[in-house]
Specification:
- The chain is of the alpha/beta class.
- It has 10 helices and 14 strands.
- An 8-stranded mixed β-sheet has the order 5-8-2-1-11-13-14-12, with helices on both faces. It has a 4-stranded mixed β-sheet with strand order 7-6-9-10.
């Protein structure tokens, strides 16, 4: 009996949040560990389906680094990195497009559909969704988004689908496709959709005052605090581009951005539908 009362309590607590986000759009960037571990993958999928079923418009943007590495290894191609970014030559770009738009995207769509969701896969070339130019020739075919045309995503949402989007863009400066950072693509899409929230699922607790101590999580960051946190070295390394994406999104009209720990099962639900909230929120 206590169990069902607890369950009822949890659902009652979720109600104001469901009302608050009903018919609002949230963009979830899905990657890292949460994609690799079967248990976490299942939890993320069920969270997405649940949010969608209670009337929240969920858009999923995904990467697929590990799958790309696996495929490159199969064809005995070594990855080279420049400033931490994968150098993308033409052959690598072919693999990236094949793996992201084909394998990873369609597997995610199939998983969501199998679990009772209604998902539809799109890649950045569909309907000219992501249009990009070369970011810096030193990185090869890595693109910088210059335009987002979200019509296909909006149409899918209107029809009750969960759009699942892979981050390959159509070149506007050359007849090629470009590899796009998934965090950046998610932020740009959230802006174009005038989303309520941008959620980046990562492999860390959020922003930590001391990177070695998870208890030093900073739950909320105001935009105005960011420069100082960078100066003090609290925001450093791989966290800088993630925070930059969040800042750009919030500055451009997305109400809140979150960096969430994808290693915690159901972190999306805890963040969206409970008083608890986890990870770091930028507003």
């Amino acid at each position: 009996m206590a169990d069902s009362q607890e369950r009822a309590q949890v659902l009652a607590e979720a109600l104001p949040y469901i009302q608050k986000y009903y018919n609002k759009t949230i963009v979830i960037k899905y990657g890292g560990n949460a994609m690799i571990s079967e248990e976490l993958r299942h939890a993320v999928m069920s969270d997405i389906i649940l949010l969608s079923l209670v009337g929240i418009r969920v858009v999923v943007v995904h990467g697929g680094g590990p799958e790309i590495n696996e495929m490159l290894a199969k064809i005995n191609k070594k990855s080279t990195f420049v400033d931490g970014l994968r150098y993308t030559d033409e052959e690598t770009m072919e693999i990236v497009q094949m793996v992201l738009c084909g394998k990873v995207n369609k597997n995610l769509v199939a998983s969501l559909n199998r679990m009772g969701g209604k998902a539809l896969g799109l890649c950045g070339m569909d309907g000219g969704l992501f249009q990009a130019k070369v970011k810096d020739p030193r990185y090869g075919l890595v693109g910088e988004i210059v335009k987002v045309v979200p019509d296909a995503v909006i149409d899918a949402l209107e029809d009750g689908y969960i759009p699942v989007i892979s981050t390959v863009a159509q070149g506007v400066d050359a007849d090629t496709s470009y590899n796009i950072n998934a965090d950046t693509a998610a932020a740009k899409l959230a802006i174009a959709l005038k989303a309520e929230k941008l959620i980046l699922l990562t492999d860390i607790r959020g922003l930590l005052r001391d990177p070695k101590d998870e208890s030093t999580l900073i739950p909320e960051v105001k935009m105005s605090q960011v420069p100082l946190l960078v100066k003090d070295g609290v925001i450093s390394g791989g966290m800088i581009p993630k925070i930059d994406c969040c800042v750009e999104a919030v500055r451009s009209g997305v109400k809140r951005s979150h960096i969430l720990d994808g290693r915690i099962p159901h972190s999306i639900l805890i963040e969206m539908l409970s008083d608890e909230g986890i990870g770091t929120m930028l507003y």
